[in-house]
Design brief:
Layout (H helix, E strand, L loop, with lengths): L1 E2 L6 H6 L4 E5 L7 H15 L3 E6 L5 H7 L2 E4 L7 H18 L3 E4 L2 H14 L3 E5 L8 H7 L7 E4 L2 H11 L6 E3 L16 H10 L7 E6 L8 H9 L7 E6 L6 H13 L6 E5 L4 H7 L2 E4 L9 H8 L4 E4 L4 H4 L7 E3 L4 H13 L2 H18 L2 H18 L4
Parallel strand pairs: 2-3, 2-5, 3-4, 5-6, 6-7, 7-8, 9-10, 9-12, 10-11, 12-13, 13-14
Antiparallel strand pairs: 1-4
Helix pairs in contact: 2-16, 4-5, 8-11, 9-14, 12-15
């Protein structure tokens, strides 16, 4: 067991009245699961508790340190059955050493270890079901099922909550929907300076008078970049449009070549730009005239849809999964059938042609939607409420 940041004084923190919570996830590299872990750890510390995190490590351990949390490096990312079994003992020892009162698992492999460690220690086991996991076989469904075994099971959308009950037999009384939260102080149009917009426009070579269509998301087939390329090829007029596909390929070189071939086949070399990873997404969204989410498979939540709304940008998303919750069709954005390039092309032409007054009305409603329902502060407060409830159930509240 390796502690990778300065040790928090558990005894002192516990005296402040909050619980000692151990969150467990595969790594702290980057992504929504990792961001939520750091946000909740910070909220635990601010509420007077003790935030502990076990993972295989990563660049975001520095953020945990700044939040006052303590990280323990363990091989909980491994799917090897022998390692999972050994991790039960490692976590059980950590629970005893640190006085852990709740263990919160955020991914399947570490959840199996955390589940049995919690049972042995007789402490609450909480899970967050983050993904729309494939469950095509009995073995896969059984592997996923650990995420439905929590004393409380947090679903990041009603779509996932329904899936937990119908597919995995979770007790509806133990399932709580806590949507993912967006940092609305960061995703705020007023917070983005003109210099940031200029820098990004120069980096992406976007002419000043062009309309920008932005698809944020890692380059993987299920995100549907190919559908957007096909839709753009079917527009009656593509002049003055620049489409930015902003996201890392994460080693999927074959898919990048496939997208490049599609762009060339459709004659869109001057329209579509593969921008790679974007490190200033608020500026990218503010620069965009339209933000797209074309996921072919249903999103468990779809954070970029809410981030775009927080920035007051019109959004088009596919009509399945959690997008049906985060987008009010015709009010805060628009929905199209998944995988339907014709429908997407028609919607692109419509949204890009709406007048300024309609755009402002959509922007206002979209920002209100994001700020009233999907903030980081709301997510953290609801998660801490789950902790309080489960501790009371165990007679420790």
């Amino acid at each position: 067991m390796v502690e990778t940041v300065t040790e928090t004084n558990t005894a002192v923190a516990a005296e402040k009245g909050g619980p000692v919570v151990l969150q467990v996830l595969p790594s702290l590299v980057t992504g929504g699961v990792e961001r939520g872990t750091v946000d909740v750890a910070r909220a635990i510390m601010e509420a007077g508790g003790t935030a502990l995190v076990a993972s295989s490590g990563g660049i975001m351990t520095a953020e945990l340190a700044r939040a006052g949390a303590t990280h323990f490096e363990l091989p909980v990312h491994s799917k090897n059955p022998l390692t999972i079994r050994k991790n039960i003992e490692r976590l059980q020892a950590l629970i005893a050493e640190q006085g852990v009162e709740i263990i919160h698992a955020r991914s399947r492999a570490p959840a199996w270890s955390a589940y049995y460690a919690a049972q042995r220690a007789v402490i609450p086991f909480v899970t967050t079901f983050h993904g729309n996991y494939s469950a095509g076989s009995l073995l896969k469904r059984a592997y996923n099922s650990v995420m439905a075994r929590g004393d409380r099971v947090i679903a990041i959308s009603d779509f996932i909550a329904d899936q937990l009950v119908s597919r995995y037999g979770a007790d509806p009384k133990r399932v709580i929907t806590v949507p993912r939260g967006v940092d609305v102080a960061n995703f705020d149009p007023e917070a983005v300076t003109g210099s940031r917009l200029i820098q990004l426009a120069e980096q992406w070579r976007v002419p000043e008078d062009y309309r920008v269509v932005l698809l944020p998301g890692r380059l993987t087939r299920w995100k549907g970049q190919g559908v957007l390329i096909e839709a753009l090829s079917r527009l009656h007029d593509r002049s003055g449009i620049r489409c930015i596909l902003a996201g890392s390929a994460q080693g999927r070189d074959h898919y990048v070549r496939e997208l490049e071939n599609d762009i060339a086949r459709c004659g869109l070399q001057d329209t579509v730009h593969l921008a790679g990873e974007c490190r200033d997404m608020p500026a990218a969204m503010l620069m965009a005239d339209l933000v797209i989410s074309t996921s072919i498979e249903a999103e468990a939540f779809g954070r970029v849809i809410v981030e775009a709304q927080a920035m007051g940008r019109p959004v088009i998303a596919t009509d399945h999964g959690a997008a049906r919750e985060t987008v009010r069709h015709g009010e805060t954005g628009w929905l199209v059938p998944p995988g339907d390039a014709d429908a997407l092309a028609h919607m692109l032409e419509y949204v890009l042609s709406i007048d300024e007054e309609t755009r402002e009305q959509v922007a206002y409603r979209a920002m209100e939607n994001a700020r009233s329902t999907y903030t980081r502060e709301q997510m953290c407060a609801r998660t801490l409420g789950v902790y309080r409830d489960v501790l009371e159930e165990f007679g420790r509240g």
